[in-house]
Amino acid sequence: MAEIKFYANIKDQSGDGELINHSAGSGVGFYGNGFGISVPVGTQQTTTFITNANGTSEGARLNNTALVSSGTLSTAGTVSVNGASAIDLDKLPNYLCPLNIRFTHSEPVKVQNCKLRIFDRNNINNHASGVVTYVYESRHPATLQTVSNLSHRGRIENAWYEFDPVNAMTDMTLTSSPGASGKNTNAQDTSVALGYNSNNGSLHTAARHDWYVALSSEPVTIGSKTQYGLYFTVEYL
Q: CA-based Rg of the chain, rounded to a whole angstrom?
């Protein structure tokens, strides 16, 4: 049986995170300098928590990943983790991302056409209301920032992917067959320091596949943003 679950990477804790019970209306919430504090319009959040559907119940505090610069195909974007100085996105370790998306199956399978959207929780073709969200998939299982990214990736750019209400809705592509703990890469990677445990690329089969996602949220209007959700879909074979 196939299943998708969302895990939150708890601040200052590596390894498996805390299951987000999304079926009961919980999720990830973005705030200013503490739970329940507003994020000023036009700025990024400074704290991230597990919360309920309305953002009013304080759960575990997560790693906070805030956009500093966007990046392009040739220039890496930058991120501030938990308020620290900005680092290039290609130096962001998986375990510091706030969100781990996990696909499991009763037998080993490949996964492909892995897509993510930020939407309004009503219709996947509608953007979240009143907020721009920046997303980056980390492919960096090594804990050291000095180690390179894995080369098997859904996107070439080390740049944030932008979900802006003024633009047409498009899918963000995530890596095919990332493997357990996101440690599958391709034959191009040869250094053990990269932290991979297989190099089969998109042909890799596993009973578990993990994606690690950095999220940065910027309100464009005042008020709580509850028409706000993350949608993920994948094919397996």
A: 17
Distance CA 79, CA 68 (A): 5
CB count in 10 Å sphere of residue 72: 11
Predicted TM-score (pTM) of the model is: 0.95
- Across all residues in the chain, what is the average pLDDT? 93
Question: Are 80 and 68 in contact, with CB atoms under 8 Å apart?
Answer: yes
**CA distances, 162 to each of 30, 77, 116, 157, 200 (Å):** 16, 12, 12, 13, 30
Look up tokens 């993990």; give the residue.
Answer: 210
Tell me, rounded to whole angstroms, the distance of Cα 100 from its chain centroid.
Answer: 7
Can you give the length of the chain in residues?
237
Chain center to CA of 112: 17
- The H or E element containing residue 136 is strand 131-138
Closest CA to 207 of 103, 123, 115, 98: 103
pLDDT confidence of residue 9: 79
Residue 221, Cβ density class (10 Å: 0-12 exposed, 13-18 middle, ≥19 buried): exposed
Q: How do beta strands 161-163 and 131-138 pair?
A: antiparallel
Distance CA 71, CA 33 (A): 26
What's the rounded Cα separation, in Å, for the pair 232 and 131?
19
Distance CA 123, CA 61 (A): 29
> 58: helix, coil or strand?
coil
Three-state SS at 28: strand
Rounded mean pLDDT of 30-41? Answer: 97
CA distance 179 to 197: 9
